[in-house]
Amino acid sequence: QVQLVESGGGLVQPGGSLRLSCAASGRIVTIYDMGWFRQAPGKQREFVAGITREGDTNPADAVKGRFTISRDDASNTVYLQMNSLKPEDTAVYYCYADVGWRAWGQGTQVTVSS
Question: Which of 14, 24, 54, 97 is deepest in the core (most CB within 10 A)?
Answer without folding.
Answer: 97
